[in-house]
Amino acid sequence: xxxxxxxxHADGERRVAATPETARKFVALGAEVAIEAGxxxxxxYADQAYRDAGAIVGDRAATLAGADxxxxxxxxxxxxxxxxxxxxxxxxxxxxxxxGANGRDRVDAYAAGGYEALAMEFMPRITRAQSMDILxxxxxxxGYKAVLDAASEYGRAFPMMMTAAGTVSAAKAFVMGVGVAxxxxxxxxxxxxxxxxxxxxxxxxxxxxxxxxxxxxFVENVKxxxxxxxxxxxxxxxxEYKAAQAELVSSHIAKQDIVITxxxxxxxxxxRLITDAQxxxxxxxxxxxxxxxxxGGNVEGAVAGEIVVRHGVKIVGHRNVASRLPADASAxxxxxxxxxLSTFWDKEAGRPVLDEEIGDAVRLTRGGQIVNxxxxxx
Length: 378
Ligand code: NAD
Hints:
About 30% of the residues lie in helices and about 20% in strands. By secondary structure, it is of the alpha/beta class.
């Protein structure tokens, strides 16, 4: 069983799918681990560290030759996979709902090439799969980094400071969308000394917000308040709810210095939470970080990969925020992949054998076909 780890080629991608730590663990399971030279460089993991862990470091062709499993952070280019074993697994974040060359087209190409593509972002949200969940591990870091990015763009301090020259008041920070990223954003903004409030469509988050010492901002008594969709994800809200939420947010947002938005609905464009008029109502110098910018954005005017200024307000739209902390993001991503494959490792077969619940959830392609119920619309 040969596991190959390739250097990532997507723009701005600094993470790597295995660290020396996880390479060593795969070797201990009995796998041969091959790393493309330089794969860990941008995440501060040197080739020699992989060698010391028992992996073989070589060029791309040697890395792929006879590989049974190819690990990636993002999906590797299907045209650049020659030499793998027939029916090799591609285990990575595959962006299956994305359009075009970095999304669905790539998945179709994996099917055509006979690969078995396993999309880690389709990991079910069940307790036993928590340690395998790349969305959680990467969102956690993104939520943290979003607040640091906001703090460095903000021309004022976060904490209240009483100085001989007078008092600096605490920044008011508002977190919209309290999933994994939002909770970490609340905790980080609190640690920096901001006054924090937060909102979500799932009423279960109210207690979580309070337990972190922040103030919940919630629409009350409107039909459709319970926004829990399937599998712990948010569902689409009623029009009545959306109108009430927009009104509440309007009055609250005008008083905020920092806003972090994280709201996502799987398989759909991100919900629009902040209009241009609401941006205009904020004080000049305020900062908004839109973590959903690559899924269409929660904030009107946000541009992926850019920091734009609208009405004196900075709207930060960094792409791939987890990759801005490449060492930790790779360490957690790599452990997610290791936890996944090792949980299903069949000692006799010397390879992972997936069960139905998790296998069917993550498997996109097999035997030349798309086989995933979410992609087939079943
Ligand atoms: P997510 O990334 O899908 O969405 C981010 C947040 O935005 C969610 O809290 C969502 O409710 C919220 N949102 C969506 N539309 C909104 C709107 N219009 N206005 C305001 N907020 C909106 O969510 P996530 O971070 O993946 O986490 C969602 C839940 O799933 C959490 O409770 C998390 O703890 C749970 N979870 C469980 C597991 C597991 O058990 N293995 C793994 C991951 C997440």
